Amino acid sequence: MKLKPKHNWLHLDLKGAIPNPEKMREQLQFWKECGYDGVVLEYDDRIPWKTWPGTWRGGYTLEEQQSLVRTCADLGLEVIPLIQVIGHLEWLLKHEDWRDWRENGSGNELCPLHPETLPRLKQWIDEVVELHPGIRFLHLGADETWNLGTCEKCRKHDPMKLYQEHVSELCRHALGKGCRPLIWADMFWNEKRLDLVPQLPEGTIPVDWQYNGIPPYESTEKLMQCGREIMGASGAMIGWWEHCFQVQSEPSGRIRNVTGWYKWAAEHGIGVIHTTWTRGASLWNIYGPWHGAYPAFVAGGDPARWESHPWRTFMEELSDTMLRSQVPELRKAAEELLTLPAASPLEKEVLRWLNLAVRYQALQQEFLIHRATRRTLTRVADFVGRDDGMFRKNCVKPFRTLLPKVDEWEKDARSFWQDNGLSDAEEFMATHIDLLRKDIADQLAGNV
Ligand SMILES: [Zn+2]
Questions:
Q1: Is the peptide bond preceding residue 404 cis, with omega within 30 degrees of 0?
Q2: pTM (2 decimals)?
Q3: 2 CB contacts (<8 Å, ≥6 apart)?
């Protein structure tokens, strides 16, 4: 029999561009077919929490959320809700009502010693459990709390001890509700405090997330010796350095990471969560839609299925092309994407998205080249003089020819967004193609 991880879950971060309920149901069906047995739903402010009135940013109504939970049950996908209980609460702490919960003024995390936080977080856990009847697991987040122990009250304590006690109290509350809590393990590892892991309540599952390279990782192996069942986490879609001027990272690194984790988890009898991040954090820009993670989704569901997928070789070449970032190569790859075989309507949309993503990279790259040319020739003129005709041809005209391509991209991207029922079209356009258009306009206006 083929070895599988103990759990093979897909994490879905709802912060970014999310599909409407109908399209979400289609995606859930696809993920089930990929081979996942659970979905970790990170809601953020995408549903109207009773515990946090006034924070709902739009996304799903409670009726829609309930209906999606039922769809998961019908499909045989276990739902594991994920809420953040200390760090990454930017979406909450940005609101005036919760401003004084901040740890030393930081918008990233709350103060664990603020008297209101624990009772309210317990109330939130109760609400989550009510919205997900019968759940066996609840993920309590707790990663990247960089400001631990910095406020006046907290400064008097061992920061990691504060963290462990705060998290443990909430884990106990979840256990009391009949669900096993999971928490991200990075704080214990990064702060070199694995000694605190055995003090987490029995039944708590620390999760070691490692998104680069492939296991084994020292952190996972050390964590496994702490006397708790652990899980691993891969990155099917994560942040990358270029995300402010690209809409898609190259697929190969993600495929390697999810495949590596799947195999290692299977061999070591642990579960794995494949994560899909749709923004760097709540107050960062949107990455592309989930369509861009399609190869990683297939590979994370079952590596063998990706191995025999007709797109496999092309995606490896595409990754190299994206890393080289040469405009003619990118344009050619964008064209070729549309000629690949699509075995389902979803695959057709994936190719459509990747075509847009590669074209976007080409547009940005063209802009950078033209801007550099213009700046350089402007300086050269100070030393050796300039020819106006040559300057117009090489330093002005290229920006004019770029503008219609920008308009065409936006038109195609908007129709992709609409056909796929995706949220946040205006934000996505305003923070991507519109900024590029403004950069070009600045060049044409001579504001260089
Ligand atoms: Zn504090």
A1: no
A2: 0.97
A3: 304
Contacts of 61 (CB under 8 A, 6+ apart): 47, 48
Strand partners, 273: 9, 233
DSSP labels, 169-221: HHHHHHHHTT-EEEEE-HHHHHTT-GGGGGGSPTT-EEEEE--SS-S--HHHH
The CA distance from 350 to 293, in Å, is 9
Domain ranges of the chain: 8-308, 313-444
Cα 122 to middle of ligand 1, angstroms: 18
Ligand 1: centre distance to CA 195 (Å): 22
**Assigned superfamily of 8-308:** Glycosidases (3.20.20.80)
Q: Are 149 and 158 in contact (CB under 8 A)?
A: yes
Distance 159 CA to ligand 1 centre (A): 9
Q: How far is the CA of 168 from the centre of ligand 1 (A)?
A: 17
From the first residue on, what is the mean pLDDT of each consecutive set of 10 residues in the chain (448 residues)? 92 98 98 98 98 98 98 98 98 97 97 98 98 97 97 98 98 98 98 98 98 98 97 97 95 98 98 98 97 98 98 98 98 98 98 98 98 96 96 96 97 98 98 98 86
Centre of ligand 1 to C-alpha 148, Å, is 7
Amino acid at position 226, single letter = C
